[in-house]
Amino acid sequence: MPNEPAGNEGLIDEQLVAYLDGELDAEGSRRIEERLSREPALRARLQRLERAWGMLDRLETPPLATQFAQSTMEMVAVAAREDAEKSQGAIPRLGRRRWAAVAASFAAAALAGVLTVGLLLPDPNKELLRDLPVLMNLEDYCYKDGTDCYWADHEFLKRLQEQGLFVKDAGQAAADSPDPPDEEDEPIDRMTRARRKKLVQGMPLEEKIRLANALTQFQALPAEEKEQVRKLHEQLEADPGLRGVSQCYHRWLAALPAHERTGVLKTAETSEQRIGKIEELLAGKAPPSGEFAGPKPMVPNFEDWIGMMHWARVYASRNKEHILQMHPELQHHFAGMTETMKERVVAFLTFLHLQKLNQDGKLNPKVLDELRGHLSKKTQAQLASKSAPERILILRNWLLAARKRIAGRQFLESVLVQVDDRELALFERKLTPQERDQLRYAPPEKKTEKLRGLYFARMIKVIGSVAPRSGSMGRPPDEAPVVRPGPGGKRPFGHRPYRDPGFHNPQKLRGQPFPLDHPPEGKRVPQPFEQGRPKTDEEVRPEFGRELHRDFPPPREPKRP
Amino acid sequence: MLKVRDDDAAAFEELVLRYQERLVMVLGHLIGNHDQAEDLAQDVFLRVYRARKRYEPGAKFSTWLFTIAHNVAANALRKRSRRPEVNLVGRESGPLGANPLSALLQASSGQMPARQLDKAEMRDVVRMAVGALNERQRMAVLLSKFEGMSYADIAETMKLTPQAIKSLLSRARGNLREVLEPYFQYGERPAEGGSL
User: Fold this and answer.
1) Model confidence over B152-162: pLDDT tens digits?
2) Of B5, B49, B163, which to mutate for an interface test with A (greatest number of A Cβ within 10 Å)?
3) Which residues fall within 8 angstroms of residue A447, CB to CB, at 6 or more apart?
4) Would you call B170 and A51 a contact, using CB atoms and an 8 Å cutoff?
5) What range does the domain containing B127 cover?
6) How many structural domains does chain B have?
7) Do residue B57 and residue B23 come from a single domain?
8) Is residue B104 domain-shared with residue B173, that is, in the same domain?
9) Is B45 inside a domain boundary?
10) Is A451 helix (H, G, I), strand (E, B) or coil?
11) Residue A164 region, left (φ>0) first, then alpha (ψ -120 to 50), else beta?
12) When comparing pLDDT for A1 and B50, which is higher?
């Protein structure tokens, strides 16, 4: 401003800024306002100050990492635990309990996550990142027997390999692996510190917890033992076959009853004795019949069942044409179906087709990997902690179990297929005359229930008609008799009342083999109507070999018990 | 915060959720690096947790929080200034080119190319203008602008007197006005329009 001495400009600015910020007292504000009313230059200066201040609103901040709050809580949970451990000696008993409670409450608030501080702070834990490849495999190197840990020994593993023990299992596990290493995937051993940090930060919580536990275990080792474990890791990295033997041996040990495991790990004093014990146990053991060889499978929860059917529906929507081409006999049924019913039938057929491939050991592990993505989060996390061969075996066993469950109408109706009023209304328009009669004769308060029964009867009939077999479930679709005599009416001549066992007696369906079971070898179930006979896979395959095997390429035959 | 002082984890989590964005924003503009700002923000929360027993009931939590943040940021900036690998090359991919500060000074001297700037460029200009302030001026500006703190609160946060804050803010805003004034007339242009 022209009339102000240079030094005063700073003071004027101070007054103006304080005025803008509302920090002037009443007298100061009054003086400034007086000057502003008289001096246009001062007003212009104020406006420029204000405008520059307003431009700060253009400053943006990139969005926070989605897990920021959670990772902060985890970090604090670790700090709480460390404080509790540090103070244990110094604080009286009551105080110690309080510290432990604090640590527990923060851990709970962080979704039970306990994470080493080194994973998150600006200065990462050097040992964690340096030994990350070892830590990620540490579980495989430690054979647990109760609270004791026996570290794997390279020489002993070589002896196992030379004796041919667990070698075939290792080879099979490698063949069944759904994720063959991509050429572009960088092995962890060769990653830079920054890449390893990023890898760790991107891990799901369950894996982080495993890693944290591994780090705690590793850090507790004497320096000499740490070196031995590091050396073992390098030796196994250099020999994938031996690593496979180690993993299979470890899994086998973990599945043993406690007393047998102790016999192998503790009681056998020399390597020869240990190998003798292992051979003895292997000779006496066979996996339970009806299951694929492998560790005892996890049990799916309710959400997993829903997820499996959802997976089948997704799969069906991609492979609908193939599935329908395999079942031309169903075409004339679809005219009488709602769109939703068609989708569900195709989904069931897809599921059964996948089951068949699964049973024959021809299911591509990639398909199972896709299934995994549809399971509950909890199950996905549990499966993530297992090795790839274990996952395949678990999911294969689940598919086997699912086949039996899916046959039950009650399960179908109440669990897997939710039919709402809108769907029922659409279905009602597609009723056959016989079905309409049945509905007409039902009491008014039971009409909806009756309609639902007809809905499921139609679905089960269509699915059951795909592979006719002896017994009521295999009844051909064209056979009449869906007439229900009304009150005082007579049964029409020549008709037998159709009895869908699922509809009238759900108990009868339970435990029955599913209608699409293929007959035992050497025995051909007579087909009542050849025209509608479904094509076998062998007949379909020559026509759609490439397309079919796009999704279901046959892997190597698994070893059957 | 009183609940946190009594070891209530849920209360602490609520504090984190309430303040995380503001804290990261202030730290980000203070040190000029968003990724590091997140790390520093977590450090701040950890220090808040560790110092929870020292929290005075009458004190304002935000003042206390940003005091810790100021210390953490100051430490980080001090460490950075000691390291040899200072990034001497400006943001090559930024709208103002490799040396945005020169561009800003050019603008101040009236030699700015006569064209309108787009949103990203204006944002860069403002960011650089704030970055051109010294650390104390920057902190005072960020606390005043984005936290709406009074001079007394800023003074408590930065361990200065209110009069010192008044002078600090006055100089800071004067500097901002000087650097940004040439850009008042440019406003914004649509992203697809304009070129050199």
Assistant:
1) 999 999 999 99
2) B49
3) A439
4) no
5) 100-183
6) 2
7) yes
8) yes
9) yes
10) helix
11) left
12) B50
